[in-house]
Amino acid sequence: MIVGEIEARAVEDARRRQDEQQARAERELRWQAAMGVAKEQAVREQLAQLLCEEAGCWQGAAQTAKRSPEFAAAYQRLAHRRGKKIATTAVARRLLARAYYLLREVESAQERR
């Protein structure tokens, strides 16, 4: 009888240890998943902040460029039709496109050497 109780307790202890290990493993998986989501969110937030900062730089450049003779006429046409903010964004986009093509030409010239 005593041996039976000891065996029953041993089985219960083994089940309890197994359940605890399984619960620990599940918690670890949930923790890893949560950390993965948190890391992705942090990276997205940093990227969004960087893009906002860069957009601000291009907007500032557009503010200056819209007074230059090359962009002034286009800015005035757009500002009259669509509004000042949209026109400023369009000038920034044109500046960015020019910078891209300029860098592309420089890169292709370097490759030819």
Q: Could you explain the architecture of this structure?
A:
The chain is mostly helical. It has one domain. It is 95% helix and 0% strand. The chain is built from three helices and no strands. Helix 1 packs across helix 3 and helix 2 packs antiparallel against helix 3 (84-112). The chain starts with a helix and ends with a helix. The model has no long low-confidence stretch (mean pLDDT 84).
List the helices and strands and how they pair.
Elements: H1 2-65, H2 69-82, H3 84-112
Helix pairs in contact: 1-3, 2-3
Write the element-wise H/E pattern from the N-terminal end onward.
HHH
* Spatial separation of the terminal alpha carbons: 93 Å
Number of domains: 1
In what range is the share of β-strand residues?
under 5%
The coarse silhouette is elongated
Task: Work out the helix count.
Answer: 3
The gyration radius over C-alpha positions equals 32 Å
Q: Structural class of the secondary elements?
A: mainly alpha
Number of strands: 0
Uncertain spans: none
- What's the average pLDDT? 84
- Residue share in helix: over 70%
Q: How would you sum up the major sheet?
A: none
